[in-house]
Amino acid sequence: MAGTFVGFGFGAIQGGLFLPEAHRSGNFDRLVVSEIDPETVASLCSSSGLYSFNVAHGDSLQRIEVAGVEAYNPLVAKEREKLVDAISEATELCTALPSFRLYDSPPASVASLLCEGLGRKMENPSLSPAVVYAAENDRRAAARLREACLSYRPEGFGGRVVFSETVIAKMCSVVTDERRIRDEGLVPLAKEVEKAFLVEAYDRILIEAKAPEGFERGLDRFVTKQDLDPFAQTKFLGHNALHAMLGYLARNRGIGFMHEIGSEADLMDKARKAFLGEAGPGLIKAYGSVGDELFTESGFAAYAEDALLRMVNPFLRDPVDRVTRDPARKLGWEDRLLGSMQLARAAGVTPEGLAEGARIALLLACEEMELSSPGQALDELWKGVPPEEQAVFRELLASSPS
After folding, report:
1. Residues of the chain with pLDDT under 50
2. CATH 3.40.50.2000 applies to domain 230-399
3. Positive or negative: CA dihedral 217, 222, 224, 227
4. Strand 4-8, strand 30-34: pairing
5. Is 2.40.50.1000 the CATH number for 4-226?
6. How many helices (H) and strands (E) does the chain have?
7. Cα angle vertex 205, ends 199, 210, to 5°?
8. Alpha helices per DSSP H over 187-335
9. What global pTM score does this model have?
């Protein structure tokens, strides 16, 4: 099997997961990436497409090289044309952008570029069908990407192109601090590039099972699920919610890196109790009918213990500031903290642990929003939510210890 893989955005998920998997598989004869940062593109070109990244195992740091990557800047006319050609012949593609809000935003619309290439594919039956994976941290990322593409191609793509959701519970970061890179022994991305990709070794990536008829995946190690939503919700309202909670507890104590929490027995105990006693019951009640082992008491306990161990990986050295950034967004009514708290309440559990983390986040949000009281911040953050639905959660945030 030989095909072309095209990635959009060259960050830690693209460079530390999708491109390495495509390279490792041996199922692609071309690896192409679209990136608007001219320095990154220049560095990849000068190294003949060779770059390095770092993998944090539980007991060591591994350096891996990926070779043969073609990097093009869609803001440069000649390079955009090369990207369009690559997209037209691609069998698998992946967007890995900072946010789904960038799908159709200046200076380079990914949806427009994607549709230009996929349009050529649709006009030429000899070109292979394709799957487009959306790796942004949103459970409707692929649906949003497809909607953005339909604004450029209303007739759609028939059955030849499928947009696939993903669940990527893989913690990663882009390290730009030269001192960290030196002191931690990280290998930079490439020569003359002052940044390094640092990703954890965890590689259980879930994708939707749907694909064009007769399609053979080149990315062959990912786990397919017929219905991905329960697992996306578990990642968001389980792993992400507890990661945020643990981060806010750590920040409140003046801890700088997530791995340092591993020696704080009381904080780990709080996180474990909230994971197993609050988020767990809520998710099991919501998705127990799926029939997957994850949504059983024992299955979720194993999931939670593994996630907590990974959160304090000493080789990942995840900054608490990164985990706790944008507290206002994380306190949104449908975001991780409140979403998990609502599921817990629906399961008959009072989410006191999650509320403690949320209260710290609320105080930080007040500072960032320059508001004088938590109540004012919640008025703004939960605007449009009926007061009777808010009441119990306002009381929890007001009464939880800081």
Report:
1. 401-402
2. no
3. negative
4. parallel
5. no
6. 18, 13
7. 145
8. 229-234, 241-252, 265-274, 280-287, 297-311, 320-323, 327-330
9. 0.91
